[in-house]
Design goal:
9 helices, 6-stranded mixed sheet, 6-stranded parallel sheet
């Protein structure tokens, strides 16, 4: 899905979600606009829940500047789909849209940059392919992780989950995405650390008790959290010499793709966006 360059005319963009006050997206996107010389471009955050989303989208177009696009966080990634004109195959594969691009003729196009963002973040740290992987958790981010692993993992993925219902969901996602998925109970989560790649998709605190179980010379860990950072698991992993990918890496790489889609300018300034994100986190 591509968009012609819009650099000649200032546009608006925003991140929507609930809660949204913590979002780093404005910091990253504004840094990109400055680095790209996009004068007059605006990027805001709006507290919008599922009930308010249709009304917000209906209001698009009545503003002083045309809208380029939207970034979406929870709980809007699935709720937005019926409100769009088209979604990409990537977004359809996990039934989640985190990016909406508005075309010049008023169409709303949905994309998912989380999945290619995960792949790009891993490749930046030298993880191009693995012959097995493990996922900690089974929420919405875990399905995106499975979709990313479908691109780089050549064999089985083991998912560690807290309930049989979650186990069934993960196996179903695996079938849909063409990934062989085996599920195990969360009580055995430390066994995940024998895999060459572990992706932790759980909320803050969920993996803290596992930090003491990290073996010597572990493989790669992708912990999708970015605040607080490092998590106890990430700190233990790094201390034992393992490769580490963090939530800010994911946030920056998926935002790079969003900037490119919304502005039509490529490449987006990865280094400037990362520096701005790091500075904003350090100031909190």
């Amino acid at each position: 899905m591509s968009t012609p360059s819009r650099a000649a005319r200032p546009h608006r963009a925003a991140v929507l979600g609930s809660p949204i006050a913590h979002s780093l997206s404005p910091v990253l996107h504004r840094a990109a606009y400055r680095a790209l010389g996009l004068e007059g471009w605006e990027y805001e955050r709006h507290e919008v829940d599922e009930a308010a989303l249709p009304g917000f989208l209906a209001s698009i177009g009545d503003d002083r500047k045309p809208w380029a696009g939207l970034s979406l966080t929870m709980p809007l990634k699935r709720a937005v789909i019926p409100l769009l004109d088209e979604i990409s195959d990537t977004a359809a594969s996990v039934e989640a849209v985190n990016t909406v691009v508005f075309t010049a003729d008023g169409r709303r196009l949905g994309e998912n940059t989380d999945i290619p963002g995960m792949v790009a973040a891993l490749r930046e740290r030298g993880v191009d392919s693995v012959d097995a992987a493990a996922i900690l958790g089974a929420g919405a981010t875990a399905s995106s992780a499975l979709a990313a692993l479908a691109r780089i993992c050549s064999a089985e993925v083991t998912a560690y989950v807290r309930s049989e219902a979650r186990a069934v969901e993960m196996r179903e996602w695996g079938e849909r995405l063409g990934v062989a998925v085996r599920t195990r109970d969360w009580s055995a989560a430390a066994d995940a650390f024998t895999a060459p790649l572990v992706i932790a998709t759980t909320p803050a605190g969920a993996t803290d008790a596992l930090a003491a179980e990290v073996p010597d010379q572990p493989g790669a860990l992708f912990d999708v959290l970015y605040e607080p950072w490092p998590t106890p698991l990430a700190a233990a992993w790094s201390a034992r010499g393992g490769a580490l990918v963090g939530g800010l890496d994911l946030l920056v790489h998926q935002a790079v793709l969003q900037v490119e889609l919304m502005t039509g300018r490529r490449p987006a300034p990865l280094a400037a966006m990362r520096a701005a994100g790091e500075a904003a986190l350090a100031a909190r």
